[in-house]
Write a structure and sequence with these properties.
single chain; about 180 residues; alpha+beta; Aminopeptidase; globular
Length: about 180
């Protein structure tokens, strides 16, 4: 359900919703947004550790693309209020005999959903992937708190993604 703030967005507010590559000046906002998203999914991570990971990500411009959605012209936000983020890593794949991308995160704040921001970020990543010559782009859609897996699946299939037979396994190396 949309908050009253999102439902009250004017045409000028909607025009002020922009998509751009995340810059180092956006480090704090990006880390805070990701900590919030992870918390919604039941993952409590140290904010300083997330900030360090985001900083390393932003420093790897060849291997990682970070796209942000911003509400421009908001009081107290010199570079726009960050309301969404998409992180894609690029790696070499033997299976595809070339570079592939992995969309690790695509998140839009609940009060800014259903405004086309996720689709706009995804289109920018798809353009980047095609321009760079990536062989494939993978992602995972899961059931987690605060997310709508059906809406996500619809968005991705609309842009040419298809389900593949696969099972993702994980071994965490968490430190106490």
């Amino acid at each position: 359900m949309l908050s009253s703030r999102a439902m009250d967005l004017t045409d000028a507010d909607l025009a002020a919703l922009i998509i751009r590559r995340v810059m180092p000046v956006d480090l704090r906002a990006t880390a805070e947004l990701l900590v919030s998203e992870l918390k919604q999914r039941g993952r409590e991570l140290d904010p300083a550790a997330v900030r360090n990971a985001v900083q390393a990500t932003l420093e790897d411009a060849q291997g990682v693309l970070v796209i942000g959605a911003y509400h421009e012209n908001q009081p107290g936000f010199a570079h726009g209020k960050m309301v969404g983020v998409l992180i894609m890593t690029v790696t070499m794949s033997i299976e595809h005999a070339g570079e592939v991308g992995w969309i690790e995160n695509l998140y839009v704040r609940a009060d800014y959903r259903r405004r086309g921001l996720a689709e706009r970020m995804l289109r920018q990543v798809l353009t980047f992937a095609e321009t760079r010559g990536l062989r494939a782009l993978d992602l995972e859609v899961g059931d987690s708190d605060g997310h709508d897996p059906e809406a996500a699946a619809h968005l991705y299939t609309k842009h040419g993604f298809r389900k593949i037979p696969s099972a993702r396994l994980r071994r965490d190396f968490t430190r106490a």
